[in-house]
Amino acid sequence: MKNVTIQQGLPEAARKIREDVFMKEQGFQNEFDEVDKTAWTLVLYDDGAAAGCCQLVLAEGSKAAVIRRVAVPKAFRGKSYGSLMLQKAEDWLRQRGIQSVSLSAQVRVQPFYEQLGFHAVGQEYLDEYCPHIKMVKEVQA
Question: Where are the beta strands (DSSP E) in the chain?
C-alpha cells in the first residue's frame, strides 16, 4: 500500500533518502541547508518503507512555489513513484492557491519532467559540477 505524508521540516526518512541518493550515489556534498527547516517535505511510503521524497517551498503571499530535492532510492525506481510524488505535490500546492511551480532539474532527467508538463526556461547551469536547468509548470485548476 502506498501513502504520502507532508509535514514541515525534514523528517528522518527524507534525510536518509537524500543522503543515499544525492550524497552517496551522486556525490553531492552540499545537500542540506536552512530551507530544510521551513520547507514542507513530502515522503512517499510503500508498505511502510520510505520510497521517495521531495520538498515544497512556498513564499508568503506568492502564487508560485518551488519543488526541490526530488529523490527515489534505487530499490524503488521504475515504479512511477517520481510521477506519483509530483502529482501529489501539485495537488497539495493547488489546494493552497499555488498557480505555478518551478524546479531545478538535473539535465539528464529533463525528459522525465517534460512528460509531466514542465518546460525548461533559461540556460543550463552547474550545481556542484552537475548540469541543471530551471523548469516551470502552471498548476492552477
Answer: 2-8, 40-46, 49-58, 64-71, 100-106, 119-127, 130-138
Rounded to whole angstroms, the Cα distance separating 127 from 119 reads 19
Please tell me the distance from the alpha carbon of residue 121 to that of residue 37, in angstroms, as a whole number: 28
- Tens digit of each residue's pLDDT (9 = 90 or more) over 25-51: 999 999 999 999 999 999 999 999 999
Average pLDDT of the residues of the chain: 95
Distance (Å) of CA 96 to CA 89, 99, 104, 130: 11, 9, 22, 32
Cα–Cα distance between 92 and 106 in angstroms, integer?
24
CB 69 within 8 A of CB 127: no
pLDDT of residue 141: 62
124-141 pLDDT tens trace:
999 999 999 999 999 976
Contacts 24+ apart (CB under 8 A), 30-34: 30/128
Residue showing cell 497539495? 92
